[in-house]
């Protein structure tokens, strides 16, 4: 450890560790993303209906994909909402009080739920479904497009990587909280 990394006791106050403009910008982005997500949930329902009109073979996939799409966006919205109190804790310089753990856990839970939804869509897209048209014929349903499964697998890997990263960050946060409490006990 070099001498510059150790704060000098004669320094009146250490430099601020947070950037208020960044916190404000991130909160503004959360508001923007929440609005985009609300529109996205409507578009998932609308566009899926239009796809079924254009490609009737996708009829059996309409409601499962609609529900998965709306729930997937909702998971992202909840995770974004959980970032807001974390940013408030940063602004208040209270991130190591332990209150951040529940918000971090909520973000991890949302990512896990998102992964479960993607896995559901991956399994559902591989099913051999049929539907009966107006004339009474059984027609094979189309539940996926080319490269759809590859896209879903990549999404699952990215979600798994994010969850693992968040678990490591949560572990670091827990250790920092414990060390802070030890220091407070010594002081």
Description:
The chain is mainly alpha-helical and about 190 residues long. It has one domain (about 20-185). The chain has four helices and two strands. Strand 1 (about 130) and strand 2 (about 140) form a beta hairpin. Residues about 1-5 have low confidence and may be disordered.
Summarize the structure.
With 187 residues, the chain is mainly alpha-helical. Helices cover 70% and strands 3% of the residues.
Give keywords.
single chain, elongated, disordered N terminus, DUF2975, membrane
Explain the layout of strands and helices.
Layout: H1 20-54, H2 62-91, H3 100-125, E1 130-132, E2 138-140, H4 148-186
Antiparallel strand pairs: 1-2
Pfam families: DUF2975
Protein name: DUF2975 domain-containing protein
Keywords: Membrane, Transmembrane, Transmembrane helix
Shape: elongated
How many structural domains? 1
The averaged pLDDT comes out at: 87
What's the story with the biggest beta sheet? 2 strands, antiparallel
- Helix count, DSSP H or I runs of 4 or more residues: 4
In which order are the strands of the major sheet placed?
1-2
Uncertain segments:
1-6
CA(first)-CA(last) distance: 22 Å
Could you estimate the helical fraction of the residues in percent? 55-70%
Helix and strand succession? HHHEEH
Rg on CA atoms, Å = 23 Å
Number of strands: 2
- The amount of beta strand, in percent, is under 5%
Structural class by helix and strand composition: mainly alpha
Transmembrane segments: 25-45, 65-86, 106-127, 147-173
InterPro entries: DUF2975 (IPR021354)
Pfam families: DUF2975
Keywords: Membrane, Transmembrane, Transmembrane helix
């Amino acid at each position: 450890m070099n001498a510059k990394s150790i704060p000098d006791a004669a320094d009146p106050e250490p430099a601020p560790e947070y950037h208020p403009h960044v916190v404000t910008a991130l909160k503004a982005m959360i508001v923007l993303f929440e609005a985009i997500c609300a529109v996205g949930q409507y578009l998932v329902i609308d566009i899926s209906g239009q796809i079924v009109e254009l490609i009737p073979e996708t009829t059996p996939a309409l409601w499962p994909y609609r529900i998965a799409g709306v729930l997937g966006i909702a998971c992202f919205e909840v995770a974004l909402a959980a970032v807001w109190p974390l940013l408030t804790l940063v602004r208040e310089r209270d991130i190591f009080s332990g209150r951040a753990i529940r918000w971090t856990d909520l973000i991890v839970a949302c990512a896990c739920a998102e992964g479960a939804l993607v896995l559901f869509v991956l399994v559902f897209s591989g099913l051999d479904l049929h539907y009966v048209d107006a004339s009474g014929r059984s027609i094979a349903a189309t539940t996926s497009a080319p490269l759809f499964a590859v896209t879903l697998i990549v999404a699952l890997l990215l979600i798994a990587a994010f969850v693992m990263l968040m678990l490591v960050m949560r572990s670091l946060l827990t250790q920092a909280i414990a060390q802070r409490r030890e220091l407070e006990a010594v002081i």
